[in-house]
Amino acid sequence: MNHTPPIPLPIEVKESGIHNRGVFATRNIKKGEFIIEYTGEKISKEEGDRRVDATNKAHRENPQHAFTYIFELDENWDLDGDTPENTAKYINHSCNPNCTFSITDARIMISAARDIAAGEELSYNYGFDLDEEYEEYICRCGASNCVGYMIAEEDWPELERLRAKKTANP
């Protein structure tokens, strides 16, 4: 019987300059390399929406202690990553991310979008919708291209239009 220990993940969780805790590379990671799977409880879209609404309400009451780890799998299912074994839930959002994710067969795989140096914090764009609640999802990534909110990059032009409209009509 083979008793080879599993290969340790090239990451560690520690205090983050972006937000609370973050995930950091413990060695150099090459572009395209698989890093970790985002795991959790598969739930219906309705249950996911209910949990997000409850977390948003709790966050408004105490922003330091309410976080949501709901990841959209498809139009019918979400994944609630708020489980002790899901280290990937600590990967923070960035407007200039070094990771990307893919969803295949209801599994969320996180890989390096570019070469990542040992010690660097991992991040990906959470891709939240530009909806009526987008202002609740403030981005703290500090990237030079930060748009201020954790919204999908494809929504950035519309965000600029909304900002220009607010500036013109305060």
Could you give a short description of this structure?
By secondary structure, this protein is of the alpha+beta class. The protein has helices at 45-61, 156-168, and strands at 11-15, 21-25, 34-38, 41-44, 70-72, 77-80, 92-93, 99-104, 107-112, 123-124. The protein has a domain at 11-128: SET domain (Beta-clip-like, Beta Complex), CATH 2.170.270.
How many helices does DSSP assign?
2
The CATH level-2 architecture of the domain at 11-128 is identified as: Beta Complex
Estimate the global geometry from the Cα principal axes.
Answer: globular
Mean pLDDT: 90
Largest sheet report: 3 strands, antiparallel
Q: Give the terminus-to-terminus CA distance.
A: 71 Å
Classify the fold: give the CATH topology of the domain at 11-128. Beta-clip-like
Given the helix and strand composition, which structural class is it? Answer: alpha+beta
What is the CATH homologous superfamily assignment of the domain at 11-128?
SET domain
Our Rg estimate from Cα atoms comes to 17 Å
Helix/strand order, N-terminal first: EEEEHEEEEEEH
Query: Roughly what percent helix?
Result: 10-25%
List segments where confidence is low: pLDDT < 50 over at least 5 consecutive residues.
Answer: none
